[in-house]
Amino acid sequence: MINSASAVKAPSIPAEYSAGQHTVLQTLLLHLLPGAAITIAFILLGPWFKANHLPPMLAILLPILFVLIPLELGFLFFLGYRRNGKLSLEGIVLLRERLPVKEYFIFPPVLLVWFFLSFWALANVDKAILTTWFGWLPDWFDLSLSRFNPAEYSRTMLLVTFFLTLTLNGIAGPLVEELYFRGYLLPRMENMKGWAPLVNAVLFSLYHFFHPAGNISRIIPLIPMVYTVYWKKNIYLSMLAHCLLNTINCLFTIPLFFK
Known about the structure:
mainly alpha
């Protein structure tokens, strides 16, 4: 005879709460070490690109392709293979709950507007921080377009740089970062409760060691996006917002690349 109490189906535990929680040290290392590796590659490439009269953006685009993507995505697939016995992100990348289609047309555009308003409002803050605290950095460390002179490069090199910027910085890099930072790391910070999205946003900004002057103008725009993902349990919202932001920024550079 089946006991009636045992026949009651136990409530399902949301995947994000069943994820193994990271310690503070693990959280810090897993957020920051990939950025350190990317920055080391950038520091090694930057002077060489300058000496050989190549576009300085390539010094960060190539590390996206050869460091960021293999390191972050490779780590996720390694964990997935160890867990599932195959190349799968099941149980590794979480926060993938279904949402009504209309919400994909509401949240990413709203976040995008917030991004651009924040960047515009904080532009002078970035310049002041760069001048005051990081003026000692070599000129090739500054990737702002104000230092980019397209007349110095061939049309072929400009086309290659623009294409890599669009595909790597506009699409591939943001997708992998959202899988790693919001899909993998954020659910494993649940022990921080409502502080988790804020800590995730701050550490994701600090991970950009190659652009230290931009932390204020990254953190403030990022906070609503990370809280939205945390609230809606859906990383596709941040994927859309992040890719749209970087792609639109890239498209704004078309007149610079193709005068």
